[in-house]
Design a protein that fits this description.
alpha+beta, Nonspecific Lipid-transfer Protein, Chain A, 5 strands, 113 residues
Length: 113
């Protein structure tokens, strides 16, 4: 599965979860995701409760996520909690603390622990 497919699946899971759509209805943010090993960039946008995904870095980021391809794929596919690589320094997140916590809650609600 390509990284774009992983992020599209993540967005689809978010959008099919009524609780998340309600929770994110006023959380309008752009998350730019960068693979440190390849330099590839992707984005997730939350607008009025709907998540979209795409390739590139054409948007100004409210939240930036950086890590290797494998770490990012594992986190956004639900294979790994973001807490583990974040604490190990393998996943870097830049942005407001409340946005970081929101992203963590989203992954928890979609994939569980």
């Amino acid at each position: 599965m390509t990284m774009l497919q992983v992020l599209e699946n993540f967005a689809r899971e978010c959008n099919s979860n009524d609780r998340l759509r309600q929770m994110n209805r006023e959380w309008n943010r752009t998350i730019v995701i960068r693979e440190t090993d390849s330099g590839n960039a992707y984005w997730l946008r939350s607008q009025e409760g709907t998540i979209q995904s795409g390739e590139g870095s054409q948007f100004e980021a409210d939240l930036e996520v950086e890590g290797s391809h494998d770490v990012i794929r594992s986190v956004f596919s639900g294979e790994m909690s973001p807490t583990e690589p974040y604490n190990a320094g393998d996943l870097l997140v830049k942005g407001r603390q409340d946005d970081l916590m929101r992203l963590d809650i989203i992954t928890l609600l979609i994939w569980g622990e």
